[in-house]
Design a protein that fits this description.
With about 130 residues, this protein is mainly α. It has one domain.
Length: about 130
């Protein structure tokens, strides 16, 4: 069993490691590894986020609109990764403003989703001990 602080930090560590590899190395193998690491962090974050949501489960479907669940949830991560790919791979400086806009939008949407969902770790309900009198 992992310590709680390490367990809670794992998706962010995966994403940070993926971004670091993406921006540090220029080979295609490193690019694929960076995308897989970031994808793993995003999936873990999404699964935990969905499990810890405190809103009504039936009301969630109206917020996603016409997009399927995984497309809707992966949208901010895709925006950030496409922006970082443009910075890492492209040498055309005219793409950089669009990459900055994508990076800002992706980060903004990710932070909004995290704040709207009121993430809470599941709490165990403790029952008081009852003494049986004979």
């Amino acid at each position: 069993m992992l310590p709680t602080k390490l367990y809670e930090a794992l998706p962010y560590v995966y994403i940070a490691a993926g971004v670091t590899v993406l921006l540090s190395y220029s080979s295609w193998v490193a690019l694929v590894c960076a995308l897989l690491l970031t994808l793993a962090g995003a999936v873990v974050w999404i699964l935990r986020s969905d499990n810890r949501r405190s809103d009504i489960r039936g009301a969630r479907f109206k917020y996603g609109g016409w997009l399927p669940f995984w497309c809707y949830e992966m949208l901010p991560f895709a925006c950030v990764m496409v922006a970082l790919l443009v910075f890492a791979v492209s040498s055309n400086m005219y793409f950089y403003p669009f990459a900055m806009i994508l990076l800002g939008i992706g980060t903004h949407v990710w932070l909004l989703r995290g704040s709207y969902r009121k993430h809470q770790r599941p709490q165990q309900k403790l029952q008081p001990l009852r003494y049986h009198q004979r």
